[in-house]
Design a protein that fits this description.
The chain is built from five helices and 14 strands. It has a single domain, classed as Metallo-beta-lactamase, Chain A. It is an alpha/beta fold. The strands form two sheets. It has a seven-stranded mixed β-sheet with strand order 6-5-4-3-2-1-14, with helices on one face. The chain has a seven-stranded mixed β-sheet with strand order 7-8-9-10-11-12-13, with helices on one face. Bound molecules: zinc ion (ZN).
């Protein structure tokens, strides 16, 4: 069992087996229901790229206050080290690291950033496998990720402008074939005001076996695989 809490935008907290993972924790963002001060425990912090709305700064703060391990692409990991984070993994594309019973794989994304390259994460937990693609447009390698890792939960950026739109995102779901998809990266700003219900309709047509879970910031979903 794992519990996924949506923290708005592209930010998630995942709790499984007594471990807490933060993904792209933009807790200073306008839609986040929690702040860094509210974080009482964290084991792993994953940051896909260094754009401010993906929570690098908050991730560093969380690691410093909890002792959590920071995982990112090499150049961003090195930045976290020089910003004072003690436990850092500096992965690169295609590489994995095992932390306890959690396996984290860094994969490519098509986007931009300053430090290294933009990335996504495939996280294998005892309760299931997650794919957080970061900010990206669609690419056909997503089908390979589905084949190689049998993804249970895909966090789908749907807002357009900076990432995929609902059409590309629904096609990405069809390529990946997860059990569940959770839309993200929409509604935070006017330029990314997509309708998640429209995304759900497209998924129902293109990948009817996949269930779409629309979460509001602060809402949680328990996944039992
Ligand atoms: Zn970005």
């Amino acid at each position: 069992m794992m519990k996924i809490t949506y923290l708005g935008h592209a930010s998630f907290k995942v709790e499984a087996d007594g471990k807490t993972i933060f993904l792209d924790p933009w807790l200073n963002g306008p839609t986040s229901p929690m702040k860094v001060d509210d974080v009482t425990a964290a084991d792993i912090v994953l940051v896909t790229h260094d754009h401010g709305d993906h929570g690098y700064a908050e991730g560093v703060e969380i690691c410093k206050k909890t002792g959590a391990t920071f995982v990112a692409i090499n150049e961003l990991g090195l930045r976290a080290k020089s910003d004072g984070v003690e436990n850092v993994h500096t992965l690169n594309i295609g590489g994995s690291v095992q932390i306890g019973d959690i396996s984290i794989t860094l994969v490519h994304a098509f986007h931009s950033c300053e430090a290294g390259s933009p990335t996504g994460f495939i996280v294998k937990l005892p309760g299931g496998t997650l794919y957080h693609p970061g900010d990206t447009g669609i690419f056909t390698d997503m089908a390979l990720f589905g084949e190689l890792y049998s993804i249970d939960v895909f966090f789908a950026p749907i807002g357009s402008y900076y990432t995929m739109d609902i059409t590309q995102a629904a096609k990405a779901v069809e390529l990946i074939m997860p059990k569940v998809t959770i839309p993200m990266h929409y509604g935070t700003f006017p330029v990314i005001s997509a309708n998640p219900e429209d995304f759900a309709k497209l998924v129902a047509n293109m990948a009817p076996k996949v269930s779409v879970e629309i979460l509001s910031p602060g809402n949680s979903k328990e996944i039992n695989i």
